[in-house]
Write a structure and sequence with these properties.
alpha/beta; 18% helix; globular; 11-stranded parallel sheet; 5 domains
Amino acid sequence: MSIGGQELFNLLPAYYRLMDAQVAQSRNLLTAAETAQLAALQSTPPPLTAAQQAQVAALTAKASRGPLQSLMMLVAEQVAAVQQDLTQLYNDEFIETCAPWVIPYIGDLIGYQAVHGVAASVASPRAEVANTISFRRRKGTILVIEQLAHDVTGWGAHAVEFFKLLSDTQNMNHVRLDNCYAPDLRGWQPLAYMDTGFDATAHTVDVRRIAVERGRYNIQNVGIFLWSLNAYPLTGVPCVPAPAVTSGANPPSPCFRLNTLGCDMPLFNFPVPQGSAIAAAATPSNVPDYLTRHVLCQDIQSGAGAVYYGEGLSLALFVNGNLLSPYQIQVCDLSGNEGSWVNVPTSGSPYAAAVDPVLGRVCLPPLAAGSPAPTVSASYSYGFNGDMGGGPYPRNDQTTEAFAVQPGPDAVVTPFGQASPGTLLNALNAAISGISAGGAAALEITDNGIYQLGPGKTSGGAVIPLTLRIPAGATFEFRAADGCRPTIVLAGELKVGGGALSSLYLNGLIVTYASGGPAATRSLLHATGEAANLLGNLSLSHCTLVPGWNLGPGGTPTAAYAGKPTVFAETPGLRLTVSKSILGTMWVNGQVTANISDSIIDATDPTGVAYVMSTDKNGQTPTPGGPLSLSGCTVVGKVYSSLLSLVTNSVFWAGLSARDRAGSPPNWAAPVWACQQQDGCVRFSFVPSAAILPREYQCVVQAGGSPQPVFVSLRYGDPGYGKLSPNTDDTIRRGADDGGEMGGFHFVLAPLRETDLLTRVQEYIPVNLDFGIFYQT
């Protein structure tokens, strides 16, 4: 218990306390300034404020306090400091209450090894040391290894003891009835899960080393299976109509696709959490994996006990706003070309809808004559490698990221949704026109809807151009609400401009071009170059401007728009900023500065044009684009810039075609070409051979037999789009300046998560056992 100055003073003999009080009464112990302040406060008409009353109380107490009492107060302060130190010394004996500087010492006492802490669950050293103590009690068990894999990587994980899957003669004292030498071919599960983390089929022994991922099934082997793709849930998404299918003599069956871009897309399972402390091994429902037909079909047959189907789960279908029950849905293969899907429902079908989770297709039974066209929407999860290009993940956490416009006295945020009146273009122009002088405004889309944005008409029939013009000194943000991913379908070129010192921000949007839109459109987003346009800043964050403008039913870009830019920035003096976005070809004026980070620039072909100022109509005779900075980016296609100011942790996946090499001099001197080589720097990046660059540092140059990136997919729309395969050589996969991978998903830091897992598992693996890591996605 601490002792205050008054308590210490009261312990003195009464004689000394009386003498001290007499001294205080006979003298004014306040300074001249304090005396004047007290007099001014006492003469102030009541009522006094709380602060003034506190000042009067403090000055009055000091005036009535003698020098001995003041000395005792100073002594009491030092006693309190000593008591606080003693209390802290006691607290430092426990990890929950110790000072931050003590954490490494406690960790060293128990043999804790520090990790990079990329995943949120291992970002706190205090929690990690505390968990180490509890994990040591479970050391050597398979569940603690699964827990470590899940926590350290932040991905779906499952650990398997391979000796349980060996097809050997069993000990009669320990018979494993579920381990049969031959699989049960009457069920679909053995084949569906064979050679995955949930394989239950017996295997012959494999004596190759598991540490290098060559062998698996041996007595001393433990396998750690990882699902590194994430499942992102979307709710209330309108389904896109597809050509109706006619089966035999039946009327046409309405068909739909779940993907808002109108192409096929595999669905993912949104994992069921295992809890903070894993007490049971993971099952297929606990990991973010592809949702297969067999799995969904078996789940739907469970009805009310479904794990995958239902609101808040992996898939839910709505027809005319009503949720379909599991008993109304048939899971089947709806593959086939447009207008020729197989297994479509026929008239008299007992099901209200057929769904194919592998292709993301939905088909309804034929409609009765005169019936209105149904509206179909869905809630589902899609797979992707990281928080890029918009999605239902936090984009406004106020710590690492925040919206450009926050509600306030000079900033108005206007919500807009599918139920809002009027068109999106009118809502945008109304929000911009309402900006006060020098103020800010935002239009926020509050759902996952599909919005048409095209030239509109006034009540008098006049055409409203597809143009956004920001007032001078103002800031405007066109964004999706946190947790939403709307799709904007342009029916023409979106032109943007503004007055002096104006700024435009796009955040969380997917922008595509209307199928069959005018072929004469120059670009998707155009910062115009007329003299009246003085727009100062154009920022794209967490946006997708679909590479190739729009996608065909199979997911391939439409050939009619090949080579056309998604961003055309020709406003002199404009500062163009792109972060965590996916863009197609970019045309950037030489007087525009482009700064791009954690993004993918995709010309849809390595020989296509990714970044220039302009080309001729055949994509040749390029003019260099403005100064360019890249940090953690993947660029698919050729780059021609006046200056590469700084390129770091990036991948250029580019090459020259025979037509590029034609002419004298050739149309393209190099796949990556900077006019100024005396300025700028390219560091920790992968560059093609014969690239014309400024000075390089620790780069990997493409050459015959040299390492090169191995991408899971380079087609936008695939779950593994832009992701480096774990088989990529470590000079690239771990070649960034922080030991992470080069390219657009550098910010995921996947190799560092893997390193953390290796560090942790080596602490907990039983003696004489070996382990290997296997990526399932």
